[in-house]
Amino acid sequence: MSEYRDTPPVDPIDSVDDPKRRLALRLARRDELAEQLAKVEEQVQADAAAARLAGMLAIEISEATGWSRNKTNYVLRNAGVAPDRSAPRKRQS
Known about the structure:
It contains three helices and no strands. By secondary structure, it is mainly α.
């Protein structure tokens, strides 16, 4: 039998009695997480541009990141990397 319980961790902000203080703490946490997300997004975009420069096709980057083809091309263009517009296509026979 497992020693761990299936209870969620207790959030210390929930124990704050003052509603204004609790709201301020939650907003501060949200802002901190938004900054972290922005930094990670920049890193992912830089990695995608590096992958494109290393020869990875934009469609492969789209599949790996879950981005649409438009977002992938937008990110690559903003990074100064050309999307693979002239990539060879399969011929229809």
